[in-house]
Amino acid sequence: MSSIPKIVILGAGYGGILTAQRLQKALNYNEADVTLVNRHEYHYFTTHLHMPAAGTDSIEHTRVSISKLIDEFKIDLVKSSVQEIRTQQKKVILEDGTLSYDYLVIALGGEPETFGIPGLDKYALTIRSINSVRLIREHIEYQFAKYKNENNAQEHINFVVGGAGFSGIEFVAELADRIPALCKEYDVDPSLVNIYNVEAAPTALPGFAPELVEHAMSVLTKKGVTFKIGVAIKECLPGGVILATGEEIKASTIVWTGGIRGNRLIEAAGFEAMRGRVKVDEYLRVPGHENIFIIGDGSLMINPEGRPYPPTAQIAMQQGECCAHNLVAAIRSQQPKKFVFSNKGTVASLGKGQGIAVVGDKTYKGWTAAQLKKVVDMRYLFIIGGIPLVLRKGRFF
Predict the structure, then answer these.
(1) Which one of 99, 103, 106, 164 has the lowest number of neighbouring Cβ atoms within 10 Å?
(2) What is the pTM of this model?
């Protein structure tokens, strides 16, 4: 029997891929056996998905083969879906086998949180994966085609997006940019198309300064977006939504971006969780399980103001780097380091040539913010794949 410790990483999202890459750099030959489990052979950029979903960019710009990001002589890649985590036995049950571990990293990403709104899980589309993005894009195009073939039924060109956070705002911006081309292609009068962005909270884009939120809403309103802020969706139907005010919006397309929870496998494993997220310790470990780390959307960490950090790509990446360091420290019986989040700034895209950004104590909007968004995206490509990946996947224009 080999005495080499076994590290299993579940998920190759932002946190998982950074953990794997840092481990392959830090570990010596035969110091640990590392396995990365992912349901697809590719890593995709969650922060880009709103663009191919709306049809304004290619899916190929949003993903890269995992084999190009890791050294498969140092990391074993297993393409499979996780079915169960058995902590007592130190095993992970996959759809086609079982893996045993000494150290486990759970980086499975999140799932849409519907908050119990009736019909949402059944009738709304979500932007969560490459396959869901394909479905949304094709569904939107199909509605334009159906409009002319079904006596110009208005619901086919009404679009409801639930949630005005990052994902919702960025998606409606891209959708608004796409509408003119779709109208031209399908001979539809652009003035007849309606995009509704519904948000239960009192403001769009929580976390941004009011003047930036106002700018964002002004830009998108001019692009044709109708905002309904401070109004919850009460029920989702096959042909639209009913709002808390009693108003019904008839629409054949409902896209839900209103919340993320942790993966349900985390709760099923018996960890104490809130909406599928575990309050990990300062070293990213699960309380009571010093050999299990949770990073990304499944982890819950409290900021200095006493509020949970939002589950962003930025925090997942930094957690991945810290997690790898602490795994190496555990193997070498060294002291782990505490996770300290370093906020590099926040940027939201508002479609072609538009955006808002906060970097340090400075705010940006318009074209400058849009360029910052490209810089942020290319920085990530450089971190995981160097200059070759930037040149292949970067958006320069």
Answers:
(1) 99
(2) 0.94
